[in-house]
Design brief:
Blueprint: H1 20-39, H2 41-47, H3 57-80, H4 85-104, H5 108-130, H6 137-140, H7 148-175, H8 178-199, H9 201-206, H10 213-216
Helix pairs in contact: 1-3, 1-8, 3-4, 4-5, 5-7, 7-8
Length: about 220
């Protein structure tokens, strides 16, 4: 029986590996469900009348987004028998704000969710550094093997980036239409994030560790 419900520390031999593409898909999947359900809410309600109980397309999308997040975390648990920290925090916020959105039928709560999540992630990452913990390693250790200094620098940069995304979300949802915000949430945030990740490649190369022998022997 495992001692840890939350995923093991970065570079820990006991850490269960997951295919990076699968990990990425599990984290991106709920967002794609949200975008699709918001843009095709009426058609979905016609095909599945029970969805009409949610209300407008944005509320249908919110309900399906919550279900997709639960499925994503369940798949992660089934594969690794642990729960990933960042999606777990995001899922908790989705549960709270999604429930408020559906209960009060007020789209403000779901629009504020990315602000809360990104601000929380940024604060957690930067706060962890204050106590000597490079928490970003818990997120990307499946894809990259870095030395301690590399994880510290990456955690600092990502902490600042998450705070930037929080501010950006506030600007968009408060100044543009709901459809514009949804499009930005799915098709704007991801390209910005990918562009940021590409700028970190030099740091990844400088602080990369040699693969462990056990890693090179497994597919």
């Amino acid at each position: 029986m495992r001692d840890h419900i939350i995923e093991e520390e970065p570079n820990s031999p006991a850490r269960k590996e997951m295919n990076p593409l699968l990990k990425f898909g599990l984290e991106l999947g709920p967002l794609l469900v949200f975008f699709f359900a918001n843009s095709r809410g009426e058609q979905l309600a016609e095909a599945f009348p029970v969805l009409r109980e949610f209300g407008e397309p944005l509320f249908i999308a919110t309900g399906l987004f919550m279900a997709a997040m639960a499925i994503s975390l369940s798949v992660s648990w089934a594969i690794t028998r642990t729960l990933p920290i960042m999606p777990l925090v995001s899922g908790a916020v989705v549960l709270v704000f999604g429930t408020l959105t559906l209960w009060l039928q007020d789209e403000t709560f779901i629009k504020m969710k990315p602000t809360i999540v990104n601000a929380l992630f940024g604060s957690v990452l930067l706060g962890g550094l204050v106590f000597g913990k490079a928490l970003l390693g818990y997120v990307f250790d499946q894809a990259f093997k870095l030395d301690a200094e590399g994880w510290r620098k990456m955690t600092l940069r990502w902490g600042m980036f998450f705070l930037f995304l929080a501010v950006l979300n506030e600007v968009v949802w408060r100044n543009f239409s709901t459809d514009t915000w949804v499009a930005f949430k799915v098709w704007g945030t991801m390209p910005i994030t990918i562009a940021f990740m590409l700028t970190q490649i030099p740091l990844l190369k400088r602080h990369a560790l040699e693969p462990r022998a056990a890693d090179t022997s497994t597919g």
